[in-house]
Amino acid sequence: MDYTNQKHPQNYSQMEDLKTLDLEESVSETIMRDLRMIAYKLKYVLIPKEQEDNGKELRNWDLWGPLIFCLTLAMTLSFKADSTTSSSKSDVFAIIFVLIWVGAFVVTLNAQLLGGKVSFFQSVCLLGYCVFPINIEAIIIAFVGSYLPFVVKLIPVIICFAWSAYSSVGFMASLVPPHKKKLAVYPVFLFYLFLSWFSLIV
Amino acid sequence: MNSKNEGIEMKPILKQDREEISKYDITKAAHPGICFFHIFFKFCAFFSYLFLGLIISSTLFQYILIMIFHSFDFYTVKNITGKFLVGLRWYSDFTPKGDEIWRFECFDKCKRSKIDSSVFWTFQFGASCAWAFFVFTNVLSFEFVDIIFAGIGASLSWINLWGFYKCSKDQQRKMKGVQSYLTKKGLQMAVQS
Question: Domain map of chain A by residue range?
């Protein structure tokens, strides 16, 4: 077990073994450690320069990051939604929520059925973290969108969509056999395209 | 009941309309604060699912709060409550080759009491069954949006229950292993003497 790199332990059991001697690790330490791991994984996923080892860090998958981003996106879009009836706001929330999780599930299933050998949760984790740029552009549009013409709004949408797609495609394409790369990558594009378009029109 | 176990305080059953909590003194639990949080988030999730519609008119906030309580409950039970109340944990790990495996472990030295574990298992099992019941009634009455939220609650509760059940089987296996080892040692010593 390698304890030298204590800032980023290689796996969960290494971190916990350090604390097994003293089981009274405080609750706040547990929470802070998990939050730091989420931030670290976010940087890892979204800034391609950090990836030197082909996504091995993603083996420490966690679904809390995707949950946070999914909730934030759903809340942003539903606050912005047409407020004539309250039911349409909650519809948007439910749609986004279901869309992200079911979409990630389907894309992962597609990659697995194409022969890719990846853990189901790792891939869902990656797709969830890559929703973060879409979060950013949804917030931008929510704040300043009403003052801008449509064409100007398209710019952050396209940039963030490209960022999400680029971050996730690298990982997904490495999973499947080379002649099936496009088949595995196409649903990922579709997934983020739909999310970006949805955040634009809502 | 085995009165040699620490932490049990058997009180006479009171004639009130309360459940088993009256049999055990919860303040004698080893971690009363953690027991409280174990119950608190479950209670909040049920409360917001059932009654928040009467308090807040916006369904959006209801959904947000229900999701938040579901996720807090899952996180608390998996990472905090399981470790302190019953000394078990489960998580996924990866082998050096890159394959993913699930680990189910129990801690040997940790101050536990029967109250803690009965609170843990009772409420976890009760909450899981209640959410499953709600999913069932929503399916029957075709309320699809409620199915989502009850379904998420049910699946998270059952996942935790399954994980900790597998941990406790490992714990029982270890206990049996220790017992059989001690028995063998005892027999050996009896034979030698």
Answer: 9-201
